[in-house]
Specification:
The complex is a heterodimer of chains A (113) and B (114). Chain A has no helices and nine strands. With 113 residues, chain A is an all-beta fold. Chain B has 114 residues and is mainly β. Helices cover 0% and strands 49% of the residues of chain B.
Chain lengths: 113, 114
Amino acid sequence: DAKTTQPPSMDCAEGRAANLPCNHSTISGNEYVYWYRQIHSQGPQYIIHGLKNNETNEMASLIITEDRKSSTLILPHATLRDTAVYYCIVRVNYGGSQGNLIFGKGTKLSVKP
Amino acid sequence: DGGITQSPKYLFRKEGQNVTLSCEQNLNHDAMYWYRQDPGQGLRLIYYSQIVNDFQKGDIAEGYSVSREKKESFPLTVTSAQKNPTAFYLCASSGRQGNTGELFFGEGSRLTVL
């Protein structure tokens, strides 16, 4: 699985958009980009994933560059409850039962009032 | 509600004692996983199971053991051979439904060795 690089920490003002970058320059053509987040002392929570098209759901938007070497997770209106560690992971989607994901240190997002 | 239940949430043990962490899921998922997390670190895979009665070692399996006798259950035993067992332990599952590869996590069990 391709390795990812994320900034260790970021700050964001409440109500503003939070843009979390992720570099994955060695991504293969069949590898997806997954985003999870972990609020302190809880289990990680799935946010969104994509292959090459931009994706949006009720939680966030995922923007993947055309060459797929980087992506950005966008939280459009960050709230204090979005303070968490955000993990960017790339891997092949084996279709469920082989869904082991490798979690690095992620980006600690602090949303400030 | 469907989900993953881990117990206990907090656990203390003395050195030299084995302890078993419970993980139960009612999502009808085939695969289950155990991760360990140390302060300020990412998650490291201990063991995983893709089907009942079968499991594989992850990156840090030494000092741990698991069983998968039922689809719903994947208990983790932290043995006395684990040199530094104090950590936050997370159980997860994934299934074929939806085909997203998404992992569903429990709330974790925090083990402290006294």
